[in-house]
Amino acid sequence: MSEKWVYLFNELDQAEKHVGGDWEAVRGLLGGKGTNLAEMARIGVPVPPGFTVTTEACNAYLASGGSFPEGMWEQEKEALTAIQAETGKTFGNRENPLLVSCRSGAKFSMPGMMDTVLNIGLNDETVKGMIELTGDERFVYDAYRRLVQMFGNVVMGVPDEAFEEILTEVRKKQGVRTDTELTADAWKSVTEKFKEIFKRRTKLDFPDDPYVQLKLATEAVFKSWNGKRAVDYRNAAGISHDLGTAVSIVTMVFGNMGEDSATGVAMTRNGSTGENQIEGDYLTNAQGEDVVAGIRLTKDLTQMKTELPKAYAEFEQIARRLEKHYHEMQDVEFTIEKGKLWMLQTRDGKRTAQAAVRIAADMVEEGLITREEAVLRVTPEQVDFFLHPQFDPEAAKMARTGGNMLAEGLNVSPGAAVGMVVFEADLAEEWAKEGKQVIMVRPETKPDDVHGMLAARGILTSRGGRTSHAALVARQFGKPAVVGVSSLEIDMGRRQMAVKDKIIKEGDWISIDGTVGEVYAGKLATMIPDIKDPWLRKLLSWADEFRTLGVWTNADYPHDARRALEYGAEGIGLCRTEHMFFQSDRLPHVQKMIMADLPIERSEALKALLPFQREDFAGLFQVMNGLTVIIRLIDPPLHEFLPSQVDLLRDLADLKIRLQHAGKLKKIDELLGKVRNKERILKRVESLHEANPMLGLRGVRLGILIPELTIMQVRAIFEAACMVSKEGVDVRPEIMIPLTTHVNELKKQREVLEAEAMIVMEERGVEINYKFGTMIELPRAALTTDQIAEYASFISFGTNDLTQTTFGISRDDAEAGFLIEYMENGILPDNPFDTIDRDGVGELMKIAVEKGRAVRPGLECGICGEHGGDPQSIALCHELGLNYVSCSPFRVPIARLAAAHAALRKK
Ligand code: ADP
Ligand code: MG
Ligand code: MG
């Protein structure tokens, strides 16, 4: 006996057995569409009888270079016989003809990539039978011409325009605007004309043998798997090419058999808001594709309640049934034939981030899924969307129904962007400088385009996938982007792009949604979604129950800290003290401190800075009442606080020219003074100059060389702590030394720090509980954390510097340079500055945690680099057993969810 290639909808059990009961494998075998049709049939949802030819058959067909595997066609015919028995209709029989559709369906949905042929089984004979049976000649010829058209287009490759031209002509001749107004005779003549076109274009007669029709249609679906469109789509979407497509043959049901017939599409919940309310569109007296094609104005599904109440009631029940079965919101296609409802497709519904969150939360309350499932179902990216501008769902819906949605592509970088189309980087930059909003559109991008991409609000490309240059750059700079929009034809010569029949010229407005990968014509209204969304709050509170990793924040100012608290932060993992130094009222004192020649000058400058710092810390402590605040002592090289050498040289040249032209003595004196001052600064800048400041005099090295700096900062911290503690605030400062490489650095700093802390606490008569610790951001520190832990009661990974020093690359240079190429070529899977390099940097972290805790079991370990907000890195931190991740306030909600995912997935 040959292999089984064909499964009737009611043979799902056998398919399961064939693949060993694995549900994913069933979908792989029968495709998403085929599996769901069979599943619906199994749970008693009305599905027209049918069967599915497997992806294995497709793969065998393609591998053999185009012949059906042994036994397949026979099995397909047998399955048809079974359907005949079930329906009482006969394929190709004039009396009561069976008509079927031939539908493609791969494991993963590939929207619009492969095709469907409806009404297979019609020919000049069966048409007559159908007319006798239905008494509706108009309907029958409409169905017949559709077959010729779809068969011609999908199976034989006749361009659809050839058929559409005729339709337009006939409509004009008859003086009507829509197809519904066309008479039976008109459809009859259209059918004839279609057949003529078919013959002219293919040099063949339209096949009147239904079995030939079915055979060729099956083959066409198989072949469409390797069609250019489908291959491009899979390349872009990262879907494997060896999956193959299944073919489902489904008994035709007709929504165009009068006013008690209808066809429609629906979502079991609102896909924009997530509200638990069926949402959809339908048309009475119409066939399936009419709803999607937008040739007729569709009606809102709520209208069906009154128009076809019985069918609607049943539909509502089925929708609930399907949700109960799939535990997911469903996107369905249905047809009502003379009052009888048939389901033609179901799949998980697409939804916005807000809807995803609300649906997950609601389904828990409805008892459909557990809290764990709900938390796992929402992605960190979806939470992220609550923090970015998005298109107003109403505006997007209107654009869609108004035919302004141009195309769909890959959603590679989230957010909504509105701007004028620009096809070239230089122009994008120029227009942006003029204050225009632009969207950079290219077939694909190259390193030369980066300046234009930076100037643009968003990026759109017709080629490329998730790891294309455009996608990587867009994500890196947080620009919304849609790539791989294959239906977009960009004509660089004419400076325009075409999508189907729409032409968009350079300078025209478009809107792109990088969150879902949609492209619209015109300007869509945007809005910032509400982080206080009640469903999001609920979901994140569940996430908090599951996660074991703390989520802290990086905050330098009280307002950042307040925001972070609102987002759910549980501490400050990094307060960068130098940010405070850059403020205009403080910078002069900092510069004075750096320029000081005498210790007395230096200590005066530092004294002037002290009150500022104290105030800053007091503010943070107040906001963070009862929570840890980790304060890092000054980190950057001092030259960063001085003007650049280039600026100074230019200023000096200017001054000298003015000096030459100065007439009055007073002016000359003034200018001379300025020149001397600048020269002094220049000298200091030159003396501070380092070939590689990243590896130079910075971090703890500054504190060692200028202990007064450490003393001032420590004093500010403790004075502030004592002050607010007296106000009744629960202060928990932790002082962190940056860039430690040797334990002796820590020993020295600790002595200075403890002494000063003691003095302040005695002065103020207050006891403050504090911790002393260090960043681990150099490989040597990571490898010697056992020694370090003798002196540090906490460590915090600075994974930015740790990545730079582990890889031996400087971030700024690498990201602007070779890193993109490294990722494009697959040398690096991710940007190591976005996602922690597990094998290298991650290994160092692991060693540090293990060695550190071996010496000091309770060693508090955290991370304060930007990686602390990256879901993949958070998973690694969870595995390493860190106590917390600390990230920017805006990443806190995402980190809460990602930490819960890490905990739940590990279980
Ligand atoms: P797609 O994947 O592009 O949606 P489908 O295979 O779902 O393609 O079919 C296209 C259209 O034809 C849909 O509207 C579908 O509901 C309709 N259709 C498919 N098979 C049948 C059938 N047997 N009877 C009636 N309508 C059908
Ligand atoms: Mg469909
Ligand atoms: Mg650092």
TrEMBL record:
A GO molecular-function annotation: pyruvate, phosphate dikinase activity
Protein known as: Pyruvate, phosphate dikinase
Source superkingdom: Bacteria
Residue ranges constituting the PEP-utilising enzyme mobile domain according to the UniProt record: 436-517
Cofactor entry: Mg(2+)
Documented EC number(s): 2.7.9.1
Purpose: Catalyzes the reversible phosphorylation of pyruvate and phosphate.
Binding site for substrate: 576, 632, 777, 798-801
Keywords: ATP-binding, Kinase, Magnesium, Metal-binding, Nucleotide-binding, Pyruvate, Transferase
Domain (Pyruvate phosphate dikinase AMP/ATP-binding) ranges: 77-300, 313-366
Keyword Transmembrane helix: no
Organism, scientific name: Desulfonema magnum
Active site as annotated: 469, 864
Domain PEP-utilising enzyme C-terminal: 537-902
The family this protein is said to belong to: Belongs to the PEP-utilizing enzyme family.
Binding site for Mg(2+): 777, 801
InterPro entries referenced in this protein's UniProt entry, alphabetically: ATP_grasp_subdomain_1 (IPR013815), PEP-util_enz_mobile_dom (IPR008279), PEP_util_AS (IPR018274), PEP_util_C (IPR000121), PEP_util_CS (IPR023151), Phosphohistidine_dom_sf (IPR036637), PPDK_AMP/ATP-bd (IPR002192), Pyruvate_phosphate_dikinase (IPR010121)
Catalytic activity: pyruvate + phosphate + ATP = phosphoenolpyruvate + AMP + diphosphate + H(+)
Pfam families (alphabetical): PEP-utilizers, PEP-utilizers_C, PPDK_N
